[in-house]
Amino acid sequence: MRIGRYPPALTLGPDATLLEVLVGMAEKRVRHCVLVSGSGAPVGMVSARDLADFLGGRRYRSVVVGRFGGDVYRALSETKAVELSYQPAWVPESAPIEDVLTKFMELKVGVLLVLGSDGRVKGLISERHVANLFADYEMYVKVKEVMSTPLVALDPHETVAKALETMSSYRIRRLPLVSRGSLSGIVTIKDLLGFMGSEGSLSRLRRGEWEQVYNTPLQSIAKSPVITVNANEDVGRALGVMRRHGIGCVVVVEDSGLPVGILTERDIVTKLPEVKGVELFFDAARNALYTSRVSF
């Protein structure tokens, strides 16, 4: 079953710099860059999370500050992408969808490479592609059973630097913006990399004006729509909301409207099979993944 993106949206050679990766991710609004050899074989992969860590997390402190004295632009320009890359999990192009789903659930990863019989990169399957296989119907599983909690959020007046550090520390990709218990927006890792990789930000970094870039308030770069669902909503309907809005998460609220958690595509792919009494069934004819709760 061919699901995913063929070919991957962003591929670069093994000598690519992190600056090239950042610009590519920002322009294409993607979270993964596949590094390939001249023959098309995978050399590694750089994720948006790795890049965010380099720009504001542990690697920022050890590499950008430690090796380049805080010169962000020079660090991006002179650091090879392979230094941040990892060897991604993969599946053969001929793999049945059941094997793909099993691998996602067992490894709890966000993406799988698809390789042809010749070892060349053919495509990429993300958790979004898998989540979209779920039909929009009653699953008899409540959102609160699989959501991520407690909610990690920031004030809308916090800075880009704080967001990068928080995402790196908690290994998350979305930060709802909450002020006095009220939800006002959300900043995603794509928003952050899109801002950092923009022409304006890169020009400032090139001139050494990194403080102006890193001190930018989050409310000014929050581009993604923030959609909420009730904690008692059915997961199937919540997924339908995500699909209709073209987003990868919804903020979970209580009846009072207080935000208490977040539901992501990864939560659905990795946690749903672990819920007591839930079984998954794939209908190849309809290209749909069905969930049935056989016991509680």
Structural class: alpha/beta
**Which segments are poorly predicted (pLDDT under 50) over 5 or more consecutive residues?**
none
Query: What is the C-alpha radius of gyration, as a whole number of Å?
Result: 20 Å
Q: Can you tell me the number of structural domains?
A: 2
Count helical runs.
12
The CATH topology of the largest domain is what? CBS-domain
Strand content: 15-25%
What would CATH call the architecture of the largest domain? Roll
The residue-averaged pLDDT reads 91
CATH superfamily of the largest domain: CBS-domain
Q: What is the subunit arrangement here?
A: single chain
- Total DSSP E strands: 13
Helix/strand order, N-terminal first = EHEEHHHEHEEHHEEHHHEHEEHEE
The first-level CATH class of the largest domain is given as: Alpha Beta
The amount of helix comes to: 25-40%
The strands making up the biggest β-sheet line up spatially as 1-2-3
Describe this structure in words.
By secondary structure, the chain is of the alpha/beta class. It folds into two domains: 116 residues, CBS-domain (Roll), CATH 3.10.580; 140 residues, CBS-domain. It contains twelve helices and 13 strands. Strands 1-2-3 form a three-stranded mixed beta sheet. A three-stranded mixed beta sheet has the order 4-5-6. A three-stranded mixed beta sheet has the order 9-10-11. Strand 9, helix 11 and strand 10 form a beta-alpha-beta unit. Helix 2 packs across helix 3 and helix 2 packs across helix 7. The longest helix is centred in the first third of the chain and has 11 residues. The protein is flat, with a radius of gyration of 20 Å.
